[in-house]
User: What shape does this take?
Amino acid sequence: MFVGTGSDVGKSMLVTGICRLLQQKGYTPAPFKAQNMSLNSFVTPDGLEIGRAQAVQAEACKIPCTTDMNPILLKPSGTHKSQVVLHGKPIGDQTIKEYFLGDHKAQLFEEAKTAFFRLQKTYNPIVLEGAGSISELNLKHRDIVNMRMAKAANAAVYLIADIDKGGVFASVYGSIALLEPWEKQLIKGVIINKFRGDVSLFDDGKKKLEELTGVPVLGIVPYAKEIYIEEEDSMGLYKKQNTLVANSINIVVVLLPYLSNYTDFNVLEKDPRVHLFYSSDPQHIAEADIIILPGSKNTIQDLMFLREKGIAKVIQNAHTEQKTIIGICGGYQMLGQRIEDPLGVESAVKAIPGLGILPITTRLTAEKITTQCRFTFKGYDEICTGYEIHMGETSVQNHAPLNQIETQPEGYQQAKCWGTYIHGILDNAVVIEDLLRDFSSLKKEMPFDYKAYKEENYDALAVLLETHIDMEAILSEIQYTS
Assistant: This one.
């Protein structure tokens, strides 16, 4: 199990690399995170919802993802409120206080353990991931994702610290010192992550940490900016580009307060013809060549935000100027005439006018649609893949469908504006080439192969970790506990 001294220390990325490395060594690994909080989610082959990070880790293992890999998912849906997804299906909304201080977590812990033991029957080893810090004293007695889960799984635990943040000695020593005796016994090693420069310069630091903690430092992993692994959640948004650049196709993703599934745009980030940036600045949005309205966990609140910031008018003007505008999921709903919420699924606002660009009307529903799909885009022959995650039914006037899912029309296209419920639509090369076709001077011979690119980076991460981590020590614990 890989736990952290805090959030954003690189747990998800290291677990992804360890998963690929174990797969290469002939094991049959699978990822597991008892509880995840994320707005980036994915749909399993059987139509259930899990955190995107565990789907990425399953991909690194070269296995299909299942809800047993992430039995509990929290999706922030309002101020201090999250939707609770259990075994892939929403079971209601709760405030953060209700969730973290409520008594029901005992039952959720049992559900998490059941999922883990079920997963363990098929795969070996299970690579567990913790969340946040392992030493939050005010919460740890209710914690179901870190040391209590490690004990239930009889896991060897490895503590990850981010040296790039500074204070690595205090964070490692303090994290371990605050553990109870039974927790300390589970800690088998420390991994220092994101080291800049020559790792041999930390030789003395390694010795001092081992003397202070009595725990071996099993690896010092260099800061590997060149290796690309999808970000787990919104922390990654702060590292994204936020302004335009010259001599490129400038594509803006409107930075909504409840933006979800921004992994939809990772392909565009890597395309050398494109400069993708995130912004809520009306002027920057107006100057972009292409505007994307992304998915949202609270479409009505985000639509109100667009009006308050003056962004709604900018998008409407861009449509008049025949700029390319795309709406995905919640963004698709916003492009319509009206959004209705009679059941109060998102808020107390029962109905709100949309941006009025597409002739569609959406009614939010209590039932969430989660499904993977194969489809054709516009009139092209290529078979594309993607997935839907939404709570809403959209009715269409004078349907001009964007996609065809088997015999069913999906989405809407009107001039240079189109909308769809399909996440991952931009992962398909035919869609990207169509999107950029008006910029012919920047065409390239071969479309960017995102799937091949991800595979190369999983392999590169595995090489990095095998080079800088004592995998023999970790493998010996796997054999001991299996």
Remarks:
- The radius of gyration is 23 Å.
- Residues 293 and 331 are 5 Å apart (CA to CA).
- The domain at 2-229+456-481 is CATH 3.40.50.300 (Rossmann fold).
- The chain has a mean pLDDT of 92.
